[in-house]
């Protein structure tokens, strides 16, 4: 086979060595620094169309070298290899090669010393996930305003390659975790934090694409393959246990604890990224929080230890549910909605009690409605970015469907029949619209939690499944829960035990209603005080402005100059000499 040739500007065909010499001469003639022999060889091979060092994975011994210069060069070569233009199967790395690659990357991070160097390297390694999925070029589309906007086109093949690279990281961490000593454990915890955030940023880059999120959840919750499923010696070659595969004995519990602790923080950081061009696709739709928390729900249903169940619930899912309850109570007071009273009346009717006469909620005046500031809602929450991205969206896109609540039993179905047909829908940022979306999100989260507890494959822990069922029944009202009847475990109770259980539940719901109404009254009082103080400050400013305008009209806006005669008259009147 004849060697490839390179054509010059005059059409003359020359070999690779002559091309390298010609490049060196041209750089010297232009006053540039001459290339090194390795750079000359790489440039000549690139012009001849031959594979270069960027088209091959770096050797593991280069990544695990004791010299920082060699390790940095191997990382740059790896970044160039992973970000090269390729689509489809050409961007996929074989599982065995992925395991070898992560073996070298693991010990490359092992060799890094000093905190700043470790932080920079951890960030650089995590950004490789985004460099794999990020396309080399973007297309432009014309918007409705006539201006051209930059739209990032995501290749599904590259996204799968990025998720496979992330899967190789978690497999390597599960495999090498027992070898980490106490002096290096902190920096590997930092590396896991960076890669957890990179996974959320990858979902954000795809515009919260449902297949990408499902593939990511599968990687995070997947168990290690069976011994006979892989022909390789390494059991993690075809994908190791994810960080939340708590039912797998090969996964250390400390990895699951750490990922659950940082889950909300890293998701909040990923949602705060709104300046990139790729965020235009995700800002027009609500963030699917039930799907993003699916691995956490699966871990809760399959946890083997009670302390693991409590740790994962309190550190990851409970903060979201608490913030959602705070938002519903705040918006309920602002909107003046009496849905809680309707829920209480229906519960009492179902229990055979006589319903109390309804209390008419005081209607908010126009002045109080105009005083509503959505920033006050976010200030009351511990993690505002989560609900801010899930409840607010671009209304012009229409990507969020608010009619999803029609599929559930609604307590307003009777009142809507008597309403006029041409009723005005509230604006997307109004308290009524936010309250509706918050209640829908709350129900979706609890129903997803119940679905995770009932998933047959892999089977959930029976004790944890009963705990999740109790959690769902306790927090959902009979109108919100599509399955309000008693479970099979409670159905076998005797009649006396059943009545005692129903009485206990009625007492708990009554206490919850009293506490909820008390919190609503306190919150409404605080909101009214804040609104009154704002109105008083506004009235004071307006009064000062009117006084200043009157002085300016009378010519008294400047300093008053008193002459000698006038000062004597004023002195005689005041008794001064």
UniProtKB/TrEMBL annotation:
Chain spans, region Disordered: 32-52, 335-370, 394-433, 531-577
Superkingdom of this protein's organism: Eukaryota
Subcellular location: Nucleus
InterPro entries on file: RRP1
Biased composition (Polar residues): 394-408
Pfam families linked to this entry: Nop52 (PF05997)
UniProt record, GO biological process: rRNA processing
Coiled coil: 493-524
Cellular compartments per GO CC: nucleus; preribosome, small subunit precursor
Keywords: Coiled coil, Nucleus, rRNA processing
Bias (Acidic residues) ranges: 335-349
Family label: Belongs to the RRP1 family.
PANTHER family reported in the protein's UniProt record: NNP-1 PROTEIN NOVEL NUCLEAR PROTEIN 1 NOP52, RIBOSOMAL RNA PROCESSING 1B
Protein's name in the database: Ribosomal RNA-processing protein 1
Organism: Tilletia walkeri
């Amino acid at each position: 086979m004849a060697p490839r040739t390179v054509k010059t500007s005059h059409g003359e065909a020359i070999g690779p060595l002559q091309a390298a010499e010609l490049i060196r001469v041209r750089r010297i003639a232009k006053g540039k620094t001459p290339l090194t022999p390795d750079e000359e060889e790489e440039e000549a091979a690139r012009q001849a169309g031959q594979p270069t060092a960027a088209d091959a994975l770096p050797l593991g011994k280069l990544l695990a070298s004791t010299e920082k210069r060699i390790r940095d060069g191997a990382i740059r070569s790896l970044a160039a290899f992973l970000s090269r233009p390729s689509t489809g199967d050409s961007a996929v790395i074989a599982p065995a090669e992925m395991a070898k690659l992560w073996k070298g990357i693991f010990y490359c991070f092992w060799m890094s010393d000093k905190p700043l160097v470790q932080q920079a390297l951890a960030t650089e390694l995590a950004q490789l996930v985004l460099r794999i999925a990020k396309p080399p070029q973007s297309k432009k589309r014309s918007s409705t305003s006539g201006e051209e906007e930059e739209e990032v086109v995501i290749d599904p093949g590259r996204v799968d390659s990025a998720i496979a690279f992330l899967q190789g990281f978690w497999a390597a961490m599960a495999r090498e975790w027992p070898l980490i000593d106490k002096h290096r454990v902190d920096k590997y915890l930092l590396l896991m934090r960076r890669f957890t955030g990179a996974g959320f940023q990858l979902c954000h880059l795809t515009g919260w694409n449902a297949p990408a999120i499902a593939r990511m959840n599968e990687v995070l919750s997947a168990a290690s393959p069976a011994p006979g499923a892989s022909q390789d010696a390494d059991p993690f070659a075809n994908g190791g246990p994810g960080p939340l595969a708590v039912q797998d004995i090969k996964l250390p519990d400390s990895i699951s604890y750490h990922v659950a602790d940082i889950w909300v923080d890293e998701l909040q950081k990923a949602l705060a990224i709104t300046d990139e061009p790729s965020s235009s696709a995700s800002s027009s739709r609500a963030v699917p929080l039930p799907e993003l928390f699916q691995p956490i729900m699966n871990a809760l249903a399959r946890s083997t230890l009670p302390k693991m169940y409590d740790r994962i619930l309190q550190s990851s899912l409970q903060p979201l549910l608490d913030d959602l309850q705070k938002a519903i109570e705040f918006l309920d007071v602002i909107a003046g909605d009496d849905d809680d009273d309707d829920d209480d009346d229906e519960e009492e009717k179902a229990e055979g009690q006589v319903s109390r006469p309804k209390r008419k909620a005081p209607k908010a005046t126009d002045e109080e409605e105009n005083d509503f500031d959505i920033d006050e809602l976010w200030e009351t929450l511990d993690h505002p970015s989560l609900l801010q991205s899930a409840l607010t969206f671009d209304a012009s896109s229409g990507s969020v469907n608010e009619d999803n609540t029609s599929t559930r039993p609604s307590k307003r179905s009777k009142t809507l029949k008597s309403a006029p047909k041409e009723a005005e829908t509230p604006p997307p940022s109004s308290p009524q619209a936010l309250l509706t979306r918050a209640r829908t999100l709350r129900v979706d989260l609890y129903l997803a939690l119940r679905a995770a507890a009932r998933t047959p494959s892999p089977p959930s822990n029976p004790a944890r499944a009963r705990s999740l069922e109790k959690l769902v029944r306790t927090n959902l009202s009979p109108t919100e829960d599509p399955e309000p009847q008693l479970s099979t475990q409670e159905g076998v109770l005797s009649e006396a035990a059943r009545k005692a259980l129903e009485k206990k539940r009625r007492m708990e719901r009554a206490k919850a209603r009293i506490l909820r109404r008390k919190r609503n009254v306190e919150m409404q009082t605080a909101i009214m005080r804040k609104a009154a103080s704002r109105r008083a400050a506004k009235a004071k400013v307006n009064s000062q402005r009117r006084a200043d305008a009157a002085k300016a009209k009378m010519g008294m806006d400047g300093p008053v100059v008193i002459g000698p005669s006038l000062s004597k008259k004023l002195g005689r009147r005041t008794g001064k000499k």
